[in-house]
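RECORD TYPE: inverse folding
INPUT: structure tokens
STRUCTURE:
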């Protein structure tokens, strides 16, 4: 299976290294993804001019058995994975395939999906890929039961997000599954899909951050930012431990549900905080790749480009570390994080001098943004512990008051939008 890739590599530092390409594939747009295997320990300073070379210009150091895949979101690759699943999606009881086109979604009108009828209430959100509507389940036998759900409507159809959700149900401990988006059912049409999911009624973290921007304090109080950071670190930690990379961690992909209103203890260890991670559309299942796979593509369509993408280094879990940093930054400063390289160290722009706990935050961002390589990822649990200690020492007393105030602000905001 040795392909001639080596002979086409111009850089002399590759001489003598055994690199074989297990597969080169092209998608319809003519861009190819390359799958490299580096079976031996190699010290590669730099190489360029790989076949279809514009895709890869890497500066790599000290790789041991690293598998490089260009683009984990490549459409053909995703199709291939879905077609080879040991348990195909159509075998799930809540998976439905229809021969027809995606139904037209009309607001304030009825819509039936299979044997269920819904009333489409309103549009609740829109991302780079989908529109999300609130709908009510119409239950003929019990007209007073108007359970609310969401429709995530996407063109073309997106079975991948549903696949990732099924994997989370299989891999995560049931006691923490409510921390991630739950889909009741998935409907696939010729030209699009509707994922019927749980409704989280109190807006995204981005929405909460923006509410504070309009208030005199301008940013979310630090007690709340630390509280949410501890929860976020835990959610991503658990996701990574079952080999899923979220791939699009940002404030608009965390959402507050009913539980946030009910949870008045605000215990830092509790799992009923009401913050949920949504949008699994860009997630990567590392179980589908060989052990130690890293990627080289940049996310172009949405989301943040992590340091590795900006500097053309391979990455895997780092993209979520960057997303966590960007989300926490947004809570602390109320603006999106911009990064700069300061004498070889990546740092966020921003006046840390005026920030409470500046030293801890500097360390937090430096460890999240300066990851040496795919084999030495910082411990999310360690960082969470440090933030938790700070929370217990300095913020536990004010959290209840601040949470109650945020609840009021969220309810007011919701009313004002109606
Ligand atoms: N379950 C949900 N409950 C309430 N709002 C949601 C839900 N899922 C998504 N949204 C809203 O819709 C937006 C887009 O949904 P998302 O799944 O992130 O789609 P995209 O892949 O297009 O980013 C979110 O940022 C959020 O505002
Ligand atoms: Mg999104």
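DESIGNED SEQUENCE:
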């Amino acid at each position: 299976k040795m392909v001639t890739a080596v002979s086409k590599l111009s850089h002399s530092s590759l001489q003598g290294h055994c690199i074989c390409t297990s597969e080169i594939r092209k998608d319809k747009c003519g861009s190819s993804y390359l799958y490299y295997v580096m079976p031996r320990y190699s010290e590669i300073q730099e190489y360029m001019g790989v076949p279809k070379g514009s895709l890869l210009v890497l500066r790599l150091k000290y790789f041991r058995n690293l598998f490089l895949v260009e683009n984990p979101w490549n459409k053909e690759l995703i199709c291939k994975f879905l077609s080879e699943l040991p348990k195909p999606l159509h075998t799930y009881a809540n998976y439905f395939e229809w021969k027809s086109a995606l139904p037209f979604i009309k607001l304030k009108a009825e819509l039936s999906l299979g044997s269920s009828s819904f009333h489409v209430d309103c549009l609740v959100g829109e991302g780079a890929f989908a529109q999300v509507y609130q709908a009510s389940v119409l239950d003929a036998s019990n007209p007073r039961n108007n359970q609310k759900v969401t429709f995530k409507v996407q063109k073309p159809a997106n079975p991948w997000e549903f696949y990732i959700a099924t994997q989370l149900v299989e891999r995560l401990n049931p006691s923490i599954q409510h921390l991630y988006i739950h889909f009741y059912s998935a409907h696939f049409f010729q030209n699009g899909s509707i994922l019927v999911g749980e409704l989280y009624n109190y807006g995204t973290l981005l929405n909460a951050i923006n509410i504070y921007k309009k208030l005199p304090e301008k940013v979310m109080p630090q007690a709340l930012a630390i509280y949410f950071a501890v929860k976020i670190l835990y959610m991503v930690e658990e996701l990574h431990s079952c080999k899923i990379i979220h791939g699009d961690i940002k404030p608009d992909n965390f959402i507050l549900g009913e539980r946030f209103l009910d949870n008045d203890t605000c215990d830092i260890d509790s799992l009923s905080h009401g913050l949920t991670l949504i949008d699994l559309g860009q997630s990567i299942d590392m179980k589908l790749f060989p052990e130690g796979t890293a990627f080289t593509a940049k996310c172009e369509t949405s989301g943040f480009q992590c340091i590795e993408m900006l500097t053309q280094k391979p990455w895997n879990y780092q993209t979520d570390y960057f997303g966590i940093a960007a989300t926490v930054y947004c809570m602390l400063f109320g603006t999106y994080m911009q990064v700069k390289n300061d004498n070889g160290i990546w740092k966020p722009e921003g006046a840390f001098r005026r920030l409470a706990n500046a030293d801890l935050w500097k360390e937090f961002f430096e460890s999240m943004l300066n990851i040496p390589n795919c084999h030495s990822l910082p411990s999310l649990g360690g960082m969470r512990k440090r933030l938790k200690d700070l929370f217990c020492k300095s913020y536990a007393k004010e959290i209840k008051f601040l949470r109650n105030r945020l609840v009021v602000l969220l309810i007011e905001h919701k009313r004002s939008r109606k």
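NOTES: Residues 31 and 52 are 8 Å apart (CA to CA).
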